Amino acid sequence: MAHIVLASASPRRQELLRRIGITEFDIRVPETEESYPEGLSPRQIVEYISREKADAAVRLCTVDEIVITADTMVFLDDARLGKPADEADALRMLTALQGRHHTVCTGVTVRQGDHTVTESEETEVIFRPASEKELLAYIATGEPMDKAGAYGIQGKGSLLVEGIRGDFFNVMGLPLLRLSRMLEQFGITLW
User: Fold this and answer.
1) Which residues, including other chains, have CB under 8 Å from residue 56's CB and lie 6 or more apart?
2) pLDDT reading at 65 higher than 90
3) Residues recognised as catalytic
4) 8 Å CB contact between 94 and 135
5) Fewer CB in a 10 Å sphere around the end CB: N or C, the chain?
6) Up-side HSE of residue 163: CA atoms within 13 Å toward CB?
């Protein structure tokens, strides 16, 4: 198997790779701006940023190494909810999400030399209605502060989630089934 480089500092993405049997990989995180052209759909945005990350990461790799990049964003009514700037911003986001449906999109790029494949996954998440007291208690855990949309479905944020439609792992930041199919195009079979 070719050597894999994960171009992400996300501990969740690292854990997810290990869950599917990719235990030997390097982490190399290039500096990139997460900007994108106006007028793109949510899926196009995350695909664009994922490709930009791959273009930057490939400069840190040999031509034989396989680079995996990803970008995950939360969208409520097509408005992007990034990582909260502070606790007040986290409360604003969580208040907007409670009792509603929203979409989590992840763009994934796999690249080896000049061979690049970019795809995206979309998952609908349904939040239950929550009181401000519950949201403040969740924010006090510190968990929301480094996550798009101000929650982590794999942690205490799960207590706010009523249900999902789509790939659970996508909400964590890496759609595993889609990634496995992309890796097959590079000769990597995870079975």
Assistant:
1) 7, 30, 31, 32
2) yes
3) 71
4) yes
5) C
6) 1
Q: 133-138 long-range contacts, Cβ below 8 Å, gap at least 24?
A: 134/159, 134/160, 135/91, 135/94, 135/95, 135/98, 136/91, 138/94
Tokens of 30: 């290039």
Beta bridge partners of 70: 108
Residues 186, 163: Cα–Cα separation, whole Å: 34
Nearest to 106 by CA among 61, 49, 60, 29: 49
- 49: confidence class by pLDDT, cuts 50, 70, 90: very high
- The residue with tokens 């502070």 is 86
Computed over every residue of the chain, the mean pLDDT equals 96
Pick the CATH number of 4-184 from 3.40.50.2300, 1.10.10.10, 3.40.50.300, 3.90.950.10: 3.90.950.10
For the cut 90, the answer to whether the pLDDT of residue 88 exceeds it is yes
User: Residue 129 — very low, low, confident or very high, per pLDDT cuts 50/70/90?
Assistant: very high
